[in-house]
Structures are given as structure tokens and as C-alpha cells.
Amino acid sequence: MKVALDAFGSDRSPDIEIRAANEAVRQGIGIVLVGDKTRLGGADAAIEIVDAKEVIAMDESPTNALRKKKDSSMRIAVELVRDGKADAVVSAGNSGAMMAISMFVLQKLPGIHRPAIVGVLPSYRGSTVFVDMGANVDCKPHYLLQFAIMGSVYAKKLFNIERPSVGLLSNGEEEGKGNELTYHTNELLKGSSLNYRGYVEGKDIYMGDVDVVVADGFVGNAVLKASEGVAEMITSVLRDSYRASPVAILGYLLSKGTFTRLKKRIDYAEYGGAPLIGVNGLAMISHGRSNEKAILNAIRLSKRFYDTKLNEAIIAELNSNTAHVESIRKAGAQ
Predict the structure, then answer these.
(1) Following CA atoms 214, 217, 223, 227 in sequence, which dihedral angle do they give, to the nearest 10 degrees?
(2) Predicted TM-score of the model (pTM)
(3) Measuring CA to CA, which of 29, 66, 87, 119 is 20 to 30 A from 295?
(4) 130-164: pLDDT as tens digits
(5) 293 exposed, middle or buried (CB, 10 Å; 0-12, 13-18, 19+)?
């Protein structure tokens, strides 16, 4: 298995990417490092390097990146997957550009209306898969049904859950809550083959009452940013509290193990990235602030999905629900 890694994606590129690539090779994963060859001298001899002279800036518009930066490290890395020269692509660069380029170059899986970003949020019982985290701001009910299908398959492959439970995010658990989008999506999900549990509230994401939570990308991105803010706030408050006095320092030393486990639970680097799921290939989007650990984990996660044939499983699950989706759409529930 070979991963194309955008060497000029993260805020601290290319040093972070080079170190992650070197470690991935030591763990037996093939790496193609894409970027300016003159700046990739620290790469392991076993790493293939593909030259790319352009870099997509973090504040660059996705449209500009797609149309004008055809020699960018990100674009060429994605094209390697399209051309069969790599099995997955990982980039910590501009997420909007990564979505646009991946959808344009790789195209969609057969039957998929909209690819989505699927992520993992910490919960009391472990982790909750959340989809969509920002790829689709305006959605239709059958888009959300497909998000639920893809999220369910993702949870099954990532956490080995035989039949993941699925919830639809709303402003209350009662049937009468929500808006027109959630109402029609709720009806679709009820008739699907998924293990659908109904509406869930925001608190249920973090309590782990269901394995998969579905929402449109506008809401999903707001949830993601709020979650990142809460995680940073918890870490900062605990750190400041432990520095307050000698007694607090002693308390920290006695509870250091618990603090370390909490930090690990809320650390985005543990998974390393969120896949753009539903494209005809494996495309992993990592945070711009990613460190070596995050990039390495994104590479390892992409290998896991390659080994477990994630896209094939999505197509199979989608096909089992196609007739149901089409009948509802024809009835006017769009």
C-alpha cells in the first residue's frame, strides 16, 4: 500500500511531513512525498519523491487552487491516486482546496450524490463518528441518508462495530422537533436498513448514546469548531489550575495519569485526519496545525481503510438502500 503525502500542507511543512513519512516507511508503509525536491533532502532513501513547484496557501480560495494551481503539491498528490500510482492521499493543507481538488480529480463513488467529511469526536463511552463536518452546507434529505450510510460503514471499519447505531442531530429528541430537512431525513432513515435510533441532541454526541451522528455540513462544522474550542479550554484550565500553588502541583503529580488519559481522548492528533468519504479513492484531510504524530496517524488510518476495503463496503451498503431512497424521492420528499 502506498500513500501520497502532500509535503507542503501543514503550518510547519515540510519538516513535519518528512519526519512522519520517514516513520511511516519504518512501519512498512510506502510513501510518495510530493513537493519541491530541493527542500526534501531529509527524506528516507526508500521514499519516492515527486516534484511539485507550487503550494496552495491556507487562505487561498478553493476555486483559485483548483483552476490555477495545477502544479501544486496537493493537486499532484491527489492525481497520483487517480492514476493508480498511490492508494491514498494525505494533506494537512487548505481543507477547502483539498475537498475541491479531490472531488474534481477523483470524482464521486457510483451512486453517491455528495461526498462528506467524517470525523471522530470523544465521548463518555469512547468515540462518536460524526458526518458531515463541513463539506456540504446546503443539503437534501437523501444526501443525509447517504451520509448516514457512509458514517455507519466508517464506524464498522474503524471500531469493529457489527451494526453501528445512528442518530440524526436535532434540537430535541421528540418527533415534533427539528426543521423540514430533519423531518424528511428522519422518514428516510426510518425505512433504511441502518440501525437508526431517531433524533439525538448535541449532548448525546459526547455521551456516546449512538455510534454515528448525522447532520448537514453547516451544523457539522459548527459542532467541530465548538468541540475544538472546548478541548483547548479544558486543557488550558487544567494546566493553569495545576500551576496555581504547591498543593495544586502535588495534586497534578498524583493525578498525572488521569490528566494524560483525558488529554489523549480529546487530542485531534490521535486520529490524525478526517477522510473525505464518498470520493473514488481515499483522501485524508488533516489539521493545518498537525504535528508529526497527527500526520503519521492519518497515514496509518488511510492504510487501515485501504486494507478493509472501505469504499467497496460503502457501495454495497448504498446499493441495499437505493430502491428505498429512489421511492421516497419520487414521492416528493426531497
Answers:
(1) 100
(2) 0.85
(3) 66
(4) 998 888 888 999 899 999 999 999 999 988 999 99
(5) middle
| CA–CA distances in Å: residue 174 to residues 167, 171, 177, 178, 200 | 13, 9, 6, 9, 9
* C-beta separation of 139 from 113 below 8 A: no
Q: How many CB atoms lie within 10 A of CB 85?
A: 13
Residue type, 183: Y
Specify burial of residue 91 (Cβ count, 10 A radius: 0-12, 13-18, 19+). buried
d(CA 241, CA 223): 27
Cell reading at 323: 430502491
Residue with cell 457489527: 162
Task: Give residue for cell 451520509.
Answer: 147
| Alpha-carbon distance values, 123 to 130, 156, 266 (Å) | 11, 17, 9
